[in-house]
User: Which sequence fits this backbone?
C-alpha cells in the first residue's frame, strides 16, 4: 500500500530517467547514496540480484534533491511519533 502512495508522488523525471530500474532499487540507491545502511529482505535469488544492481548506477545531485523534497516530516509508523 505504501509503495503505491510513494510511487504516486515520486518525481517523474527520476522515474523516467530510471525506467529500466525497479522503483524499489531507486529507493534503495537513494538510501545507500545518503550513507544509510539498508538490509533488503528476500530469499529469492532473482531479487537478490536486483538488489545488488543498485551499485550499477547512481543518482545525480538533482535527482537526490528531488527525492529529498518529498519529505513531509510525517511517518507511516505512529509508534515513532513519540520519539
Assistant:
Amino acid at each position: 500500500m505504501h509503495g503505491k502512495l510513494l510511487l504516486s508522488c515520486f518525481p517523474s523525471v527520476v522515474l523516467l530517467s530510471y525506467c529500466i530500474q525497479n522503483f524499489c532499487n531507486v529507493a534503495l540507491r537513494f538510501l545507500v547514496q545518503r550513507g544509510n545502511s539498508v538490509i533488503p529482505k528476500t530469499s529469492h535469488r532473482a531479487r537478490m540480484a536486483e538488489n545488488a544492481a543498485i551499485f550499477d548506477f547512481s543518482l545525480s545531485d538533482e535527482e537526490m534533491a528531488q527525492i529529498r523534497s518529498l519529505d513531509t516530516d510525517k511517518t507511516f509508523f505512529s509508534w515513532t511519533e513519540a520519539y
Helices lie at 2-9, 12-17, 23-33, 45-52, 61-68. Residues 1-5 have pLDDT under 50 and may be disordered.
